[in-house]
Design a protein that fits this description.
By secondary structure, the protein is mostly helical. The protein has 6 helices and 3 strands, in the order ααααβααββ. It has 2 domains: 3-70, no CATH class; 74-143, Orthogonal Bundle (Arc Repressor Mutant, subunit A), CATH 1.10.10. The protein starts with a helix and ends in a 15-residue tail after the last strand.
Length: 158
């Protein structure tokens, strides 16, 4: 299993409901446990040790399911945040908003520091912006539009 396949399995786990995950676990777990029991029966392991190993393997299975379900690596969080903020800004009348507005309208968990890192990690999509307000300027985020490629010659208008 390569990295893309593993990532797609993790994405499926995150997007699935708890009921769906429970159903899949009920279907997969007996096969998983049976495979380990088969391996242990073919190894020179005492019968007293087999239930202990199967118990540890079972706990490891459920821990892995929980990790895939709720663990959110930072890169993945930034990737999703970039999509959310970009989609939000593209459908607004303005191409920029204050961090406060993004927090209020997109995701209340986005801190100013997080949004500054989001801009740094996606300089081709976002730029820093200063939003003028009555109480003074506020930090914000702006959407970068595709610019004209300066390496291509521009034909004169006739």
């Amino acid at each position: 299993m390569d990295g893309k396949e593993f990532r797609s399995v993790v994405e499926l786990m995150r997007s699935a409901s708890s009921r769906e995950i429970g159903f899949i676990v009920l279907l997969i777990f007996p096969f998983y446990l049976g495979a380990w029991a088969f391996v242990l029966n073919n190894l020179p392991v005492t019968e007293a040790l087999t239930p202990i190993v199967l118990g540890v393997v079972s706990v490891a299975f459920f821990v892995a399911v929980l990790i895939m379900r709720w663990w959110d690596p930072p890169d993945e969080r930034f990737r999703r945040a970039a999509h959310h903020v970009k989609n939000f800004l593209e459908h607004q009348a303005k191409d920029f908003r204050s961090f406060e507005a993004i927090r209020r309208l997109v995701n209340e968990d986005y801190t100013d520091e997080f949004m500054k890192k989001l801009i740094d990690r996606n300089p081709e999509i976002f730029r820093r912006a200063r939003i003028k307000r009555e109480g003074g300027p506020k930090d914000g985020i702006g959407l970068i539009h595709e610019m004209i490629d300066e390496t291509k010659p521009v034909l004169p208008v006739t």
